[in-house]
Amino acid sequence: MRNRVKRRLRAIMAALLPTLPHGTAVVIRALPRSAEVDFARLRADVTDAVDTARRKAALA
After folding, report:
1. Helix, strand, or coil here: 42?
2. What's the CA dihedral at 34, 35, 41, 43 to 10 degrees?
3. CB 12, CB 42: distance < 8 Å
4. Alpha-carbon separation of residue 18 from 3, 21, 31 (angstroms)
C-alpha cells in the first residue's frame, strides 16, 4: 500500500511541479488514510493543499 501511495503522489506532483515557481520545495506527509482513498480524491486533496500553500506564500 505504501508504495502505491508513493507512486500516486509522484504522479500528482509531476503534474503540479511545472506550475510552481522555480526552486519551490514541496514536502508531503501521507497519512495512513491516503492508502484508502482513490486517485481522484488524493489528487484533489494534494491540489487543494498546494493551492493553500500558494495563497499563504503570496501573503508573506
Report:
1. helix
2. 70
3. yes
4. 24, 8, 25
Over the stretch 14-60, which tens digit does the pLDDT of each residue have? 999 999 989 989 999 999 999 999 999 999 999 999 999 999 988 87
DSSP letter, residue 36: T
Residue numbers of the domain that contains 25: 2-59
59 Cβ contact partners less than 8 Å away, ≥ 6 residues apart: none
- C-alpha distance across the termini of the chain, in Å: 37
State how far the Cα of 22 lies from the Cα of 1, in Å rounded to an integer.
Answer: 31
Domain count, the chain: 1
Residue 5 CA to residue 48 CA, distance in Å, equals 17
